[in-house]
Known about the structure:
Blueprint: H1 6-23, H2 29-40, H3 46-67, H4 74-83, H5 92-111, H6 120-130, H7 140-143, H8 169-181, H9 187-201, H10 208-222, H11 235-247, H12 253-270
Bound molecules: adenosine-5'-triphosphate (ATP) and magnesium ion.
Amino acid sequence: MSDNIKPYLSDFQTLLQTIYTAWQTVDITHFEKQKRELDAHRPFPPLALKSLEGRLEVDEVHNSTAIEGNSLTLGETALVLQKGLTVSGKPLKDHLEIKGYDDGYRYIKSIYQSAHTLSEKIILEIHRLIFRHFENGLEKEYAEGIGRYRTMPVYISGSEFVPPNYIKIPELMNILIDFLNGIKNDCLRRAILAHFGLAHIHPFTDGNGRSARLLMNLLLLSEGYPIIIVKNDRRAKYINSLEALHQNPKDTAFFKLMTDFLQESFDLYKSLYS
Ligand SMILES: Nc1ncnc2c1ncn2[C@@H]1O[C@H](COP(=O)(O)OP(=O)(O)OP(=O)(O)O)[C@@H](O)[C@H]1O
Ligand SMILES: [Mg+2]
């Protein structure tokens, strides 16, 4: 590794630490309390739980792909996922995106019980699944980027932040994964920091936002928390808060917005027993 990369790496560790420390100033005890309350009511009636989980799945797949520009509505997403239908007049690409994201979601739901320790393999697999239906049809340079780190620069439109040079990605990812695995008994901050970290490194040519949202949810599920669904109706707030965090690592707007979404999921779970 060349010497001019090393300072950047320790800068990234400092950045993660600064953000994590700033988030300690936000009181999350009421979420921990709600989590304990939820656990006290388990097990939930199986059919009601299944119905709620189906709803959350469609909500997550719809919102996360809509943020990325997918044109399918919530109802259309449900038709595609639950009835296997296609929606006439909507692009094939949008259907494949929905299916791929759902594959990624089902993957995190299938592994979360054994995913307390995060690994690079899991993150790459999430990305591969999101794009699996594009493997044969995409232009060659994109197809090679499925489930692999980028080998070219990327730019975030509308942002002043330029993601790091691709040469640094493997080492930055190691730093991120080690940092996250070092956080114990602080699931919420850990999961939300994982989202920030992936958005910052932007390790893929495309699909960074979707991978970051699934990764965050994997870490929440692995500790028994409900998922965070980043709602498309607050897309601008979401993007602005990520931008603000890059301008000022002590800004807590992104963390607070994520916990607002968490509250919405807690409220849905509460309807199972109150
Ligand atoms: N200023 C910013 N700093 C860091 N990350 C950002 C910033 N603005 C946006 N992002 C992240 O980058 C994502 C977009 O990256 P990319 O196009 O690779 O992901 P995607 O999954 O294809 O699309 P999307 O995230 O819009 O669904 C956003 O969703 C957000 O998570
Ligand atoms: Mg994109």
